[in-house]
Amino acid sequence: MNAAELKTQFTGYVFDEIELDIEPESLVGFATACGETQSRFTDPTDPDFQGVPNYLTRIHGSRAMPADFPVEMHRCFDAGKSVQFHAPVRPGDKIQGRSEIADIFEKSGRSGSMLFIVHRMNFYNQAGVHLATVDWRLVQRELD
Amino acid sequence: MILDLHSHSVASDDGRAKVENYCQWIQRKQVGIDGFVLTEHRQFDDANDYRALEDQFGLLILKASEVETEYGHVLVFGVNDDLRAAFDFAKIDNPLATVLEAAERAGAVAVPCHPGRPKVGMCAHWETRGPVDGVRIIETLNGGSREGENEQAEAMAERYGWNTIGGSDSHIVSHIGRCATRFDDEIRDIDGLVTALQGDRFEAVVPETAS
Q1: How many domains does one find in chain B?
Q2: Residue B17 falls within a domain, yes or no?
Q3: pTM
Q4: CB contact under 8 A, A110 and B119
Q5: I need a surface site. Which of A28, B51, B126, B208 has the fewest CB within 10 A?
Q6: What domains are defined for chain A?
Q7: Residue pairs between chains A and B whose CB atoms are closer than 8 Å
Q8: The domain that contains B118 carries what CATH number?
Q9: Which residues span the domain enclosing B81?
Q10: What is the pLDDT of residues A78-132, one digit of tens each?
C-alpha cells in the first residue's frame, strides 16, 4: 500500500479516545521538569494556576495507531511533536483526548525515501472547550 | 537584482521559518538580496499572500515549488494549473522527463536543485540512469550543500553548458540568502522571473551580508 492509499484509508476518523483527571501535582511536576518558574505554573495556590502550554504533549492514547494499520511501529522512529495551544489546562479538569491520523506522506532525502505519519490528539475539557492539538510525527525509512 | 531562488517556510513539513521572520532577518542583518522565492516541498502554497510583507519590507517574495523525481529534487518556477494537472506534486517519484516537458509546455521553468547531493540530486542518477533531454539550468550554489556537492554540480553545468542558479535552501531564518542568483534585469513578479530564467542573463552568486 502506498502513502496515498494509506492516507485515504486511515485519515479523517477518530480511532481512540481516552479520559484522564488532572491533578495539581502533575501540573507542577511537568512545569518544574520544563524549568518553568512562574508561580501560575508551579504554585497550586496561585489564583491563575494552570498547566504549561505544552503540558498535554505528555499524554498518549491507549493505542498509537488504528488497529489494522499496516505500518510496523517498531520500524518507526520519533520525528518530533508540535502543540497548538488553545486554552489552559486547570487542576480538576476531566480531559478527553481523541486520536486520529492527520496526515500520511512520503518524502525523499539524503538517506532515501521516508514515510511520515502524523498522529494527532485533540484534547477537550469537561465543558467541551478545545484545549490543545498535539501532532506527533513518526517516520519510517524506505516504504515497502 | 539578487534573489534567493530556493527557500522553505513553515508551509513545508520541515520548514521552521515564518516568512515574516525571514523578512525581519534580511532587514536586520542587511542580507544582500532583494527578495526570495518560497519553494515549498511537494506542493504549491495557494493559501498565503505575502504582498503586505513585500510592501512592509521592500522585498520581492515569490512562490514556486520543489517537486521530487527519480533523478532527485527539482524547483519549478511559474507554477500554473496546466503544470499542476501534468503530474502529481505530492509524489516522490515523478519522472524527471515528464516534469521538464510539462514545465516547458506550461510556460514554466524546471531546475534540478542540489544536483550533487546523494539520493536527491541529479548527478549520481545521471551516471546510473542516463541523460535526460530538456535540462537547461541547474542549481550549482545550494546553501545546504556539504563539501564537494556544489563543486560537482558546477562541473556538470560546465560540462553540458547549462546555466546556473543559486538558492539558500533555507529552512530556518538565519540561512536565508546564503546563496542566490544575480539577474541583469529587474524582476517584479513571477512572470518576470520565468522570463528571466528563459533567457541567460543570470548567474549563481554568494550574496554579501553586512553583519
Answers
A1: 1
A2: yes
A3: 0.88
A4: yes
A5: B51
A6: 3-23+61-141 (3.10.129.10)
A7: 28
A8: 3.20.20.140
A9: 2-205
A10: 999 999 999 999 999 999 999 999 999 999 988 888 999 999 999 999 999 999 9
Which of B14, B68, B90 is nearest residue A108 as measured by Cβ atoms? B68
**Residue ranges of chain B whose CB lies within 8 Å of a chain A CB:** 13-14, 41-42, 68, 72-73, 90-92, 117-120
Residue B129 has pLDDT above 60, yes or no: yes
Lookup: cell for B204: 549563481
Q: Is the ipTM of this complex over 0.85?
A: no
pLDDT tens column, B142-195: 999 999 999 999 999 999 999 999 999 999 999 999 999 999 999 999 999 999
In a domain, B45, yes or no: yes
Q: Which residues of B touch A108 (CB under 8 A)?
A: 68, 72-73, 92, 119-120
Residue B140 lies in a domain: yes
Long-range contacts of A91-94 (CB under 8 A, 24+ apart): A91/A22, A91/A23, A91/A24, A91/A27, A91/A44, A91/A49, A92/A21, A92/A22, A93/A21, A93/A22, A93/A125, A93/A126, A94/A19, A94/A20, A94/A21, A94/A22, A94/A125, A94/A126
